[in-house]
Amino acid sequence: MLDLSGTELVDQLMKRNLPLPSIVFAMAHVEHAIAAFEKHTVDYVLKPFSTEKINGALDRASRRTEGERAVKLIEALPQLRRLSSRPLYTRMAIRTKGRILFLDPRDVVAVQAEGNYVLLQRKSGSYLLRESLSEVAEKLKPYGFIRIHRSVLVNTSFVEEIQPYSTGSCSLRITGGRKYTVTRTYRKNLKSLAGFWIGRRDLPG
């Protein structure tokens, strides 16, 4: 380098908060090693240089870099899990009364079986569709829908209250005041309504 020494170059990178590469210093005297490590170097090589020394230092730098990447990945895993649990915005298409409508699945409050049809309920209206509840449940599961009855799905984001009964069933109230019965078979699905529960003796088990 014509204008800067190696340590001066590292100083300039650090002052500008620029990302540092894996640094290996080449030096003539071991006394400079401490100064080199203060600059966040991975290793140093003393003169006289040899292929063995150079390759060894590069190998250590590579392994150090991989380790640092692994640490960063482990630190980021909780956030990655949260992001992966949230589906990207997707519109769903439904056919009703000779038309095809596009809806945001997050706007659907509940889905109820009606014979060979399902009634898809929104806050602003409902649609009767020829579809099985099981197929709808599979498609809506990534958007926070749970089954609370063999004939009912609800969007967990609209659930406001649960009233447990001594029989093992529950009453579930959603936004707007409508109530549904949660049968014992599907009571365990209520666990997903909250990130954590406090005092859960009478809550889903």
In short:
Helix content is 28%, strand content 29%.
Give the key terms.
single chain, 205 residues, alpha+beta, 5-stranded antiparallel β-sheet, 3-stranded antiparallel β-sheet, 12 strands, 28% helix, elongated
Q: What's the arrangement of secondary structure elements?
A:
Elements lengths: L5 H10 L8 E4 L5 H6 L4 E4 L4 H34 L7 E5 L2 E5 L4 E7 L2 E6 L2 E5 L3 H8 L4 E5 L2 E4 L3 E6 L5 E5 L4 E4 L23
Shape: elongated
Radius of gyration: 30 Å
Number of strands: 12
- Low-confidence segments, ≥5 residues, pLDDT <50? none
Order of helices and strands: HEHEHEEEEEHEEEEE
By DSSP (H or I, 4+ residues per run), the number of helices equals: 4
CA distance, first residue to last residue: 68 Å
Question: Biggest sheet, in brief?
Answer: 5 strands, antiparallel
Determine the fraction of residues in helical runs and give it as a percent range: 25-40%
How would you write the strand order of the largest sheet? Answer: 7-6-5-9-8
What percent strand?
Answer: 25-35%
- In quaternary terms, these chains amount to single chain
Overall pLDDT: 77
